[in-house]
Write a structure and sequence with these properties.
- This protein is 36% helix and 19% strand.
- With 339 residues, it is an alpha/beta fold.
- It has one domain (3-338): TIM Barrel (Alpha-Beta Barrel), CATH 3.20.20.210.
- Helix 9 (285-295) links the parallel strand 10 and strand 11 (304-307).
- Helix 1 (30-50) packs across helix 3 and helix 9 packs across helix 10 (317-338).
């Protein structure tokens, strides 16, 4: 009861990439960079285990960004001629590559880090991938002319990689879909269908992570406009409850999502975000346990997994791992109180 995990990414060591920022440039190249990525992955595993994390990840140490770490392996995408595009319904602008032809996967994407992680931990292993809708929302379409069609094309590629990750020994493959709280009608019309295509035949547990984004200024400014209660999920949780996804990851700590909405995800395992990634204040174990206890009012206890609200890539490493230690201790405290 109350196993622990992280949403996905963790900060990179200073010898691998510039700290405390997204899109941090690598500090090495060639064979030295490959070796450093492997070393950072092993270190992330060890530190998660030391913090009491039950379902560890590779920390996304081999990726500059959770989306572009995947699309860099996809043919049909032009990185040389980027264009400016509004992201998440124009919440912010970004310079993005363009889809200029039929999407094709050049080969495996995260096999190296998945197999490395599997060989060096006896704990459950989760590997993350960007979701089809979020991919569509993070690249410019100059070929398909239809978001749903392009999402299904990405879903085919994601499915191939997800099947490979399951064969590599991943216990959970998670698809990150921050776009799911922006395009509610699209989630129901084709977003979940694209997820179903992505998980087809995948031989392990599947999860979807939805959230209000990293703790960056554009997201913080947007959240300030959402009022005292964030009820966007009310529109999509029933559809997710009816989906074939096994787990749903939701931010709960310091968010304004009413936790009563979790009852709309009946039947699913819930990764309950009990760690705020938009603040450097380190939670106490008591605060973590309190979030878990509140979630347990609406979700069967055996279906709760304690997690972080979102990825931790832009955070200070010291702060991030202090927060993970609090997560492990808080889950243990919740087991004592609620077990």
């Amino acid at each position: 009861m109350f196993d622990t995990t992280v949403a996905g990414s963790l900060p990179k060591p200073v010898w691998l990439a510039e700290p405390d920022r997204l899109w941090a440039p690598w500090r090495l190249d060639g064979a030295e960079l490959d070796a450093a990525k492997r070393d950072a992955t092993l270190l992330a595993l060890k530190l998660q285990e030391d913090c009491g994390i039950d379902m560890v990840t590779d920390g996304e140490q081999s990726r500059q960004h959770f989306v572009h770490g995947f699309v860099e392996f996809v043919d049909g995408i032009d990185f040389e001629h980027k264009v400016e595009m509004g992201i998440r319904a124009d919440r912010y602008k970004a310079s993005v590559p363009q889809v200029t032809g039929e999407l094709r996967l050049r080969g495996r994407v995260h096999e190296t880090e998945a197999r490395l992680a599997r060989a060096h931990t006896g704990r459950k292993l989760k590997i993350t991938l960007p979701g089809p809708m979020t991919l569509v929302d993070t690249v410019a379409d100059a070929h398909y002319g239809d978001r749903a069609e392009m999402a299904m094309a990405f879903a085919v590629l994601l499915n191939a990689e997800a099947r490979g990750l399951a064969a590599d020994g991943a216990d959970v493959v998670q698809f990150d879909e921050p776009a799911f709280n922006v395009y509610m009608a699209d989630v129901r019309d084709w977003g979940i269908e694209a997820l179903h295509r992505a998980i087809e035949g995948v031989g392990c547990t599947t999860a979807v992570h939805i959230c209000y984004g990293y703790g960056i200024k554009a997201n913080a400014d947007w959240k300030a406009t959402l009022g005292s209660e964030w009820r966007q999920y009310e529109e999509i949780f029933p559809a997710l409850a009816s989906s074939r996804i096994d787990q749903v990851s939701v931010e709960c700590r310091n968010s304004r999502v009413p936790l009563s909405l979790l009852s709309l995800l009946e039947g699913k395992d819930i990764q309950v975000g009990a760690i705020d990634v938009a603040s450097d204040e380190v939670e106490t174990p008591e605060q973590v346990a309190a979030v878990i206890a509140e979630a347990a009012r609406y979700v069967p206890r055996e279906k709760i997994i304690a997690s972080t609200n979102c990825g931790m890539a832009p955070m200070s490493r010291d702060v991030a791992y202090a927060k993970l230690a609090a997560l492990g201790q808080g889950a243990a405290l919740a087991r004592e109180r609620l077990g």
